[in-house]
Amino acid sequence: MSLLELERVGRSVRQGAHERVVLRDVSLQLESGELLAVWGVRHSGRSMLLRVAAGIEPADSGVVRFAGQALSARCGEMLGKGIAYCSNAAGSGEAHEVLDELMMGQLARGVPRALSRARAVAALERAGAERCGARASHELDRAEAVRVRIAGALVLAPSLLVIEEPTRAVDLLERDAILALLRSLADEGLAVLMSAGEATALSGADRALALTNGVLRGSVTPELAPVLTLRARARA
């Protein structure tokens, strides 16, 4: 049994008087310790695929299973309890320090303050963002913001990390380091599902699937796919 399974998933969105099919009969499997990249051009359906896989958006047809259970039956409750999702949207612009923001979600779940702080500090260190803890989110550059979002996911101790375009608008010198961080997290047993808009963002992935007009192409099961060797794997 795979950690994440999408079976013949379909999804449409309404645009004015018309309905556009975003995902067409999409199937894939993702195992623990695997880094899977979904790439394609803008409006190819990448973001919707990740949101459906994380349980944020419902599928119109087909089924999404996480750890053997249908996400539709869990009413999104696995988000934050096994699944962590990182969008590529701009930060909130609030003046809270990053460390405080990472603690807030834990405190809301009843985690004691001392433990929530320790987890937040450890997550920032693991993500290579320890210097960002005392700064506000709006003070971070793009690469720092991505690392902080990854840290925010790690405090939840997820089994699956779903992350949108982690290298988008990131300085060239920082892109490989972020990809190496995601690779190292997968090597530690975390399942990582990411989207990418360019081939250079596929470095270190175990598999890359192409999404075009809502149709997913490539090796949808791990056993059928060779490890990508676009570049030598780096380590964070």
List the defining traits of the structure above.
Rossmann fold, globular, four-stranded antiparallel beta sheet, alpha/beta, six-stranded mixed beta sheet, single chain
Report what the structure shows.
The radius of gyration is 17 Å and the shape is globular. The chain has 236 residues and is of the alpha/beta class. It contains five helices and ten strands. α2 (98-108) crosses α3 and α3 packs across α4. β9 and β10 (215-217) form a beta hairpin. The protein has one domain (29-58, 71-224): P-loop containing nucleotide triphosphate hydrolases (Rossmann fold), CATH 3.40.50. It has a six-stranded mixed β-sheet, sandwiched between helices. The protein has a four-stranded antiparallel β-sheet with strand order 2-1-4-5, with helices on one face.
In short, what is this structure?
The chain is an alpha/beta fold and 236 residues long.
Strand order of the largest sheet: 6-7-8-3-9-10
Structural class designation: alpha/beta
CATH class equals Alpha Beta
Strand count, sense and barrel status of the largest sheet are: 6 strands, mixed
| Average pLDDT | 88
Per CATH, what is the topology?
Answer: Rossmann fold
